[in-house]
Amino acid sequence: MIGRMAATTAAAPVPDAGARRREQRAWYFYDWANSAYVTTVLTVLFSPYLASIAETAACGAPGTPENPCTANLRVLGIPVSPGSLPLYVITATTLLSALVLPVVGAAADRSRHRKQLLAGFAWAGAAAASAMVFVTGTNWQLGVGLLFVGNLCLASSIVVYDALLCDISTPDERDRVSSRGWALGYLGGGLLLLVNLVIVEGHGVLGISTSTAVRISLLSAGLWWGAFTLVPYLGLRNRPPVAVVPERGSFVRQSVGQLFTTLREARAYPMTLLFLLAYLFFNDGVQTVIYASSVYASGQLGLGESVLIATILLVQFVAFGGALLFGRIAARVGSRRTILAALWVWVAVVVAAYFLPARQVAPLLILGVLIGIVLGGTQALSRSLYSQFVPRGREAEYFSLYQACERGTSWLGTLVFGVVHQVTHSYRPAIIALAVFFVVGFVLLARVDPQRAVRDAGNESPAVI
């Protein structure tokens, strides 16, 4: 620790309140920008579209429930089911990003040009998303490559973006700023998704095919992501790095060396690591509920695609208000207590899902409202609370660990869901099994001492935490 303290330089002075607010408004818009890709491309449209392209390549036409495509593609000599191809690509990107993101974080902490780094990753990802308009016919290879690039660039940009939260806000502002960013992201992603679903569902009226409507929607998500990234690029300012560990060699070698130094020193922050462990569990539960919701609604409840789309849109827009609401609650009782309360709401969500009656829309929509309320708040406050626990000058590295650990273990909840369904032949016990993740996350988070975590990291403690 002696060498590290000697290498630490004074942090840049915090700008006045007016300057901070201007930067915060610019920062919010990156949530607005990238959420278009997350909702339109990742959540709804591209996976089924890529699967249909792969099925056309393997079988000559997309499969149907009555006549499924049973032929396999050959990927690096391995037989791959066309319907599983998008899931395998997302899994491979997730695992690779768990290895790459810590190096990205270390590089960002050493860089004097963070906003250029953020924009560079964003525009590369936006270009990949826009190029999805050219994925047609049997060209599944192009789709795989673009999805790979888009996902990796998104994850890398989020590491830099989350780290900037510490630069543009004081400790007392973090919950509010993080919540507004998440809220704007849900609103922007929901609005573009609504427009794109109108295009896809109304393709006949527009005189275009379903495939063309989907490709136009994918293009719109890429253009939206790239265009709105201009707002944070122009509105944020760069700051000199602090607490840089002296390393020799190229910039990449220096970044890797700093990463290993940070990993060795992480043991000095036990409360930060305990929070990270708690986050791994309850966030895995959150992500699995989101991933499994469409399967549960269609396979267990017997509801159609239009109901699923309506529920997704409902969750998006309710989450906008939920993030803002939780930000206000956290300002009164603290973000840790607010997250703890939210985890019990998540337990109630999966228990209620177990009892949902089949083929009834209203109960599912009511549950969607409940999910939307806690979804935005849980994610926003987790980000802001974690930002209080990371040492100055190591923000991007620690947020890369936050992202990498999340991505490296995000398969556990879906595995439990799948195994329980395989054993019981029902999605009801599978969905209620996810309560374990929220209960374990609650127990671990309850053991986190936030005041100690802030002190260990050498940060200023907010008035309410």
Automatic annotation (TrEMBL):
MF terms in GO: transmembrane transporter activity
PROSITE patterns with a match to the protein in the record: MFS
Cellular compartments annotated: Cell membrane
Any single Gene Ontology cellular-component annotation: plasma membrane
Membrane topology: Multi-pass membrane protein
Keyword Transmembrane helix annotated: yes
Full protein name: MFS transporter, UMF1 family
Source organism (scientific name): Actinopolymorpha singaporensis
